[in-house]
Amino acid sequence: MPREPRSQRVEAIVLKHADFGEADRLLTLYTRELGKLRALAKGARRPGSRKGGHLEPFTRTRLQLASGRDLFIVNQAEAIEAYSTLTENLEALGYASYVVELLDRFSADHEANQAVYRLVRDTLARLAAGDDLQLAVRYYEVRLLDQTGFRPELQACLNCRKAIQAQDQYFSYEQGGVLCPDCGPRDPAARPITMAALKVLRHLQRSSYQEAQRAKPSASVALELETLMNAYVTYLLERSLNTPRFLRRVRSGAAAPKKEDR
C-alpha cells in the first residue's frame, strides 16, 4: 500500500461489501481522492451502529479514513446520497450493479481518476432518477472505455483505413473498433454491426450526456448494442461479468406474470 497520511477525509462510492469477523464489514470503495481501495468498517454490523447505514452499496458517502497495517480503517461515515430509489426497480438495481462491477474490473487499486469518479456518480444518479436505463448505461460504457484507454475506433476501418460508409459494418473485439465489409469477414474476432447501431455509438462517443439523450434507438438496436458492448467488455476483461446474467433473469421474471395473465 502506498504511504498515506495517518488520517484523511475522502468522498467515496461504495462498490460492494462483505462480512468480516463477527461484527465488521470489509468494503470496496472508489474514492475521488485515492481511486479504488479496500477499507474495514469496525462494528458496522452491530445493531445501532452509526456507520452501517452509510456504507451500503452504491451509496456516495464522506469518510474519515485511517491507515491501518493492511487496510484503511473507516473512523467516520456520512452518506451524501443513498440512491434509495434504485431498490424500488429491480432492473435499475441490476444496471447499477453492472455499473459498479464494470468499474471494479477496469480500475486498479490506488489510481485516482476524478473524471471516472464523476462519471460513476452521475450514472448512478441518472439510474436512480428514472432516466432511460439502457441509454444511461451505454453512455457510461463508452465514456469508461475512453477514460481507461480502450476507446474504440468508429470512424475508419482499422485494417484498410478507409472512411466508414453508410452501410452495415463489422466490429472487431481484438482490434478495438470497426472494420469495413471487405476487411471484416477476414477477422475471426469481428462480428456484424448494423449502421443504425454504429450511429448510436458514434453519437454517444462525441456527445455530452444531454446531447446523447436525443438518441432514440429502436428496441432491436438497443438489444444489439447491449449484446455487443457486453461481449466487448468481456473480451477486454478476459472474464464474464455477473450482472448481465442477473439482468436477464430480471427481465425474464418480469415477463412471466404477463404471460400468465392472458
What does it look like?
By secondary structure, this protein is of the alpha+beta class. The chain folds into 2 domains: 7-82, Beta Barrel (OB fold (Dihydrolipoamide Acetyltransferase, E2P)); 85-261, de novo design (two linked rop proteins). Helix content is 39%, strand content 22%. The chain is built from 7 helices and 8 strands; from the N terminus they run βββββαααβββαααα. It has helices spanning 90-106, 114-129, 133-147, 195-206, 209-212, 219-237, 243-261, and strands spanning 7-20, 24-31, 35-41, 60-67, 72-81, 169-172, 177-179, 190-193. The strands form 2 sheets. It has a 5-stranded mixed barrel with strand order 1-2-3-5-4. A 3-stranded antiparallel beta sheet has the order 7-6-8. Strand 1 (7-20) and strand 2 form a beta hairpin. Helix 1 (90-106) runs parallel beside helix 3. It is elongated.
